[in-house]
Amino acid sequence: MTDAALRRNLLEQLMDAGRLVVERGLVLASGGNLSVRVPGTDTMLVTASGTWLDRLRPGDFAELTLGGEHRGGPRPSVEWRLHARTYAVRADVEAVVHLHPQHVLLVDLLGERIRFTTLDHRFYLGSAGRVPFAPAGSIELAESAAQAAQDHDAVVLAHHGCSTLGATVEMALRRALNLEEAATMTYRLLLAGNHEADFPEEWRDRIIDV
């Protein structure tokens, strides 16, 4: 695959992901942002400032180095540092999905942890990091999220949203969907007055028999 074809493919994956997360109500209007690392380089493609994720076109992505040098395209999302710092500390991560899912935020606002109660929740995530509020686009937010990302494939950003990571766009998206589903189930358990139900401790490290 040529470099141009590879980039087109990566952008198509991000555009498809953008449509899906808006359809699922995980972000509204021009909230959220998506990125992918360009394989074999020190650059990333990230959604431009003010773009709506369900209306993305190939021209709606900026190319930056992980150090912030603008290599092409429009002005990047204010959250570009959040993506760049995560790539810098996780060589295995090739895509970052940053959204504002309602139930993730609800559970965090209640001072509760998200419970990963199903096989899929455990398999794709198992845990989530959490960082206190810092202004959008700030170095403080980028650094604290990157630190949490060293131990987790999902990071809850207090009063803001979350970031999920993956070796592919598909995996980062899959983790975002599972994080919100886990938070939704946690919220419903809390509404029912349950604060204890969780995945069986004895099976947490043996969820699939291979």
What would the keywords be for this entry?
single chain, alpha+beta, L-fuculose-1-phosphate Aldolase, 38% helix, globular
Could you describe the 3D structure shown?
Strands 4-3-2-1-5-8-7-6 form an eight-stranded mixed beta sheet, with helices on both faces. The protein is α+β, with helices and mostly antiparallel strands and 210 residues long. The two termini are 34 Å apart. The protein is built from six helices and eight strands. The longest helix is centred in the C-terminal third of the chain and has 23 residues. β7 and β8 form a beta hairpin. It has one domain: 3-Layer(aba) Sandwich (L-fuculose-1-phosphate Aldolase). The model has no long low-confidence stretch (mean pLDDT 96).
Q: What's the quick description here?
A:
The chain has 210 residues and is α+β, with helices and mostly antiparallel strands. It is 38% helix and 17% strand.
